[in-house]
Amino acid sequence: MSQFEPTPKKYERERILLESIKNNPNLHHNALLKTLVPEFMAKSTFEKTRDSLLEKEIIFVQLRGNMKFYSTTDDYEIKLQHRIERNTNNSFHDLKLEIKRLDTDYPHKDIDEKITLANAILRNLIRTDTGFTILDSSKNPKKTLYRDEHLEIQQLIHRVFEIIQSDRHFDIIYPTIVSNLGFFVPQTSWDKDLI
Predict the structure, then answer these.
(1) β-sheet bridge partners, residue 60
(2) In the chain, what is the straight-line distance between the N-terminal and C-terminal CA atoms, in Å?
(3) How far apart are CA 45 and CA 144, in angstroms?
(4) Which of 2, 31, 160, 181 has minimal CB crowding within 10 Å?
(5) Mutual orientation of helices 147-165 and 111-139 as an angle, nearest 10°?
(6) 141 by DSSP, 3-state: which?
(7) Which 3 state secondary structure label does DSSP give 72?
């Protein structure tokens, strides 16, 4: 499992906190804290989970007097789609600029920097393509709305591999990069450990 995939425990904690907020809209921060800590999670875990839900805009804070109350966000699905679209487009444009710089910068880096940089760019290209796929499926599952972007990402990935292949340390860099991208590639059978 990659470090970027949420663990089942994190999902569970977010679900527990979200359910508690939804089922008890009149509980202020401290009362909510008391219902969940220590039975379901530690106080620091509660705060991290709450911050994560706030950051994702799944919940928001209302101040009444000097007390904080949490509520679920109305029309979350629409806001999420807008956030995915904004982040995906920003990432896409940033990556295009990064790859333009890669042509001149890459040969001057040491081997470890080359591996780290190439891995980061390739992973972000794959994530960005996934963002466009999610947007395609949520907007119109029967049509590819982001066809041009998907094609350009495919070409950018190819360009990164061209830069790697033309490098004098190719024989060391290439196997390391490809092996680190393994978790993006389907395995021969369904990995039950991810469930």
Answers:
(1) 71
(2) 10
(3) 40
(4) 2
(5) 170
(6) coil
(7) strand
Structure tokens at 161: 């591999």
Among 166, 186, 167, 126, CA closest to 150: 126
Task: Go through the chain and tell me how many residues it has.
Answer: 195
Neighbours of 66 (CB within 10 A): 6
| Neighbouring C-alpha atoms within 13 Å toward the C-beta of 143 | 3
Q: What is the pLDDT of residues 130-178, one digit of tens each?
A: 999 999 999 999 999 999 999 999 999 999 999 999 999 999 999 999 8
Task: Indicate yes or no: pTM above 0.85.
Answer: no
> Of the candidates 116, 63, 123, which has an alpha carbon nearest to the alpha carbon of residue 91?
123
Residue 99: partners with Cβ closer than 8 Å, 6 or more residues away:
121, 156, 159, 160
Interatomic CA distance for residues 114 and 102, integer angstroms: 10
Give the residue carrying structure tokens 């950051």: 55
Cis peptide before 25 (omega within 30 of 0): no
